[in-house]
């Protein structure tokens, strides 16, 4: 399997994930996260089983596509629950906590997953992952609720004044959000599907304050997904003749940065007095790091520096979660699912394009260090997007 084929196989998950984001945003806003997550986890389980059974490249492509479809519902649903159940002032802290657990899972997917694959076979590992997905689907069905009104009934005056949730129920917190200028709600009654689709897309896409967040996910986060999810280990082995275990150990330091950085997001925002300054600092320091690696060190700094580079990279990249806080704040609450879905989609478009570009560079240039220019270019674009960000909705 050459670099382009490997890149395409990995990118199938990203393609499906990106294609599903707008449908997921619609479904989350209108149907609710409980049913959508249950169905998504069932599809994820089916994709994992198919990948374990795959003996052809076509079957592997299809299984990866199914896993992408199934997993595409998760993060948008989490942000919808946060926006519905909690005030916006808690959004960054909750997003950081979510990222902490997600990245802890990523840590488990490195050495522990490699050990299990070598010990029991990679096919069996995917069967087990399918079983875990099915268990999670049942837990979602049992424990997740779309709105507080599914647990208790609000006072009559609150119900009368509040905005509707995804199933037509009224959330007291939605009412609270709708009364604040930072988070206005534009509709009380659920719109017909086509009218909702047109209005939500128009509202989010025509809002100029949406787009800096989209570009941050496309460039800043897309480059990290590419590097850490696919090309980090191969580039380390090609540039420095490291064995795969050592290269994987270097890349693991980024996950340590994720885990440390995620709980500190809220503190970072308070210290720098706002989401925009925090993102400017994160994207700006990331750009400086890659300028040193690519230009000053000529794309080949000392190998011993890479654990520190990966750790700093992981620490800084966690500031991307603030883009979700911002895009939620500058768009109406009833379209928060659509806003976060469009923003999240950008990461996977960016990572897919970067993965393919790096694969082409490695296959045709014969110079592994040239791949770093892709990461540097995306780091620059992420910083410029943060410069354009606004923290308040347009009047």
TrEMBL record:
Its annotated compartments are: Cell membrane; Lysosome membrane
- GO CC term (a single one): plasma membrane
**A Pfam family the protein falls into:** MFS_1
- Please give the residue ranges the record annotates as the region Disordered: 155-185
Q: Which CDD domains match?
A: MFS
Give every Major facilitator superfamily (MFS) profile domain span.
1-394
Q: Which UniProt keywords apply?
A: Lysosome, Membrane, Transmembrane, Transmembrane helix, Transport
Q: Which reaction does it catalyse?
A: L-histidyl-L-alpha-amino acid(out) = L-histidyl-L-alpha-amino acid(in); L-alanyl-L-lysine(out) = L-alanyl-L-lysine(in); L-lysyl-glycine(out) = L-lysyl-glycine(in); L-arginyl-L-alpha-amino acid(out) = L-arginyl-L-alpha-amino acid(in)
- Keyword ATP-binding applies: no
Note the topology in the membrane: Multi-pass membrane protein
Q: What is its main location?
A: membrane
Q: Which residues cross the membrane?
A: 12-29, 36-55, 61-79, 91-113, 125-144, 214-235, 247-271, 278-299, 305-324, 345-364, 370-389
Q: Which GO terms describe its molecular function?
A: transmembrane transporter activity
Subunit structure, per the record? Homodimer. Interacts with lysosomal protein GLMP (via lumenal domain); the interaction starts while both proteins are still in the endoplasmic reticulum and is required for stabilization of MFSD1 in lysosomes but has no direct effect on its targeting to lysosomes or transporter activity.
Question: What family, per the record?
Answer: Belongs to the major facilitator superfamily.
Q: What does this protein do?
A: Lysosomal dipeptide uniporter that selectively exports lysine, arginine or histidine-containing dipeptides with a net positive charge from the lysosome lumen into the cytosol. Could play a role in a specific type of protein O-glycosylation indirectly regulating macrophages migration and tissue invasion. Also essential for liver homeostasis.
PANTHER family under this entry? MAJOR FACILITATOR SUPERFAMILY DOMAIN-CONTAINING PROTEIN 1
User: In its UniProt entry, what is this protein called?
Assistant: Lysosomal dipeptide transporter MFSD1
Species source reads: Desulfitobacterium hafniense DP7
């Amino acid at each position: 399997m050459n670099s382009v084929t490997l890149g395409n196989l990995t990118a199938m998950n990203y393609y499906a994930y990106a294609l599903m984001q707008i449908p997921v945003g619609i479904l989350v806003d209108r149907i609710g996260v409980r049913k959508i997550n249950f169905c998504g986890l069932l599809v994820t389980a089916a994709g994992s089983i198919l990948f374990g059974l795959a003996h052809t490249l076509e079957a592997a492509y299809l299984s990866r596509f199914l896993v992408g479809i199934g997993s595409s519902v998760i993060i948008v649903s989490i942000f919808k629950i946060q926006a519905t159940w909690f005030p916006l002032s808690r959004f960054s802290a909750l997003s950081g906590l979510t990222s902490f657990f997600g990245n802890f899972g990523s840590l488990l997917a490195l050495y522990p997953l490699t050990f299990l694959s070598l010990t029991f076979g990679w096919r069996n590992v995917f069967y087990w992952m399918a079983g875990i997905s099915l268990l999670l689907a049942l837990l979602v069905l049992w424990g997740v609720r779309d709105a507080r009104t599914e647990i208790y009934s609000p006072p009559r005056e609150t119900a009368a004044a509040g905005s509707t949730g995804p199933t037509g129920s009224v959330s007291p917190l939605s009412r609270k959000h709708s009364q604040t200028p930072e988070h206005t709600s534009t509709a009380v009654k659920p719109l017909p599907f086509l009218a909702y689709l047109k209005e939500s897309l128009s509202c989010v896409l025509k809002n100029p304050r949406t787009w800096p967040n989209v570009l941050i996910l496309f460039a800043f986060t897309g480059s990290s997904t590419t590097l850490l999810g696919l090309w980090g280990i191969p580039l380390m082995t090609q540039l420095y003749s490291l064995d795969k275990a050592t290269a994987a150990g270097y890349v693991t330091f980024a996950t340590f940065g994720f885990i440390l950085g995620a709980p500190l997001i809220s503190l970072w925002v308070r210290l720098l007095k706002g989401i925009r300054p925090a993102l400017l600092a994160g994207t700006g320091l990331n750009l400086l790091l890659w300028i040193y690696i690519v230009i000053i060190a000529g794309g080949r700094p000392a190998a011993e520096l890479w654990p520190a580079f990966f750790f700093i990279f992981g620490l800084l990249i966690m500031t991307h979660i603030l883009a979700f806080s911002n895009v939620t704040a500058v768009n109406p609450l009833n379209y928060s699912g659509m806003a976060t879905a469009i923003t999240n989609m950008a990461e996977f478009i960016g990572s897919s394009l970067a993965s393919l570009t790096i694969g082409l560079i490695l296959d045709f240039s014969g110079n592994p260090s040239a791949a770093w220019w892709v990461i540097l270019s995306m780091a620059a674009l992420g910083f410029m997007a943060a410069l354009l960000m606004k923290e308040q909705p347009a009047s």
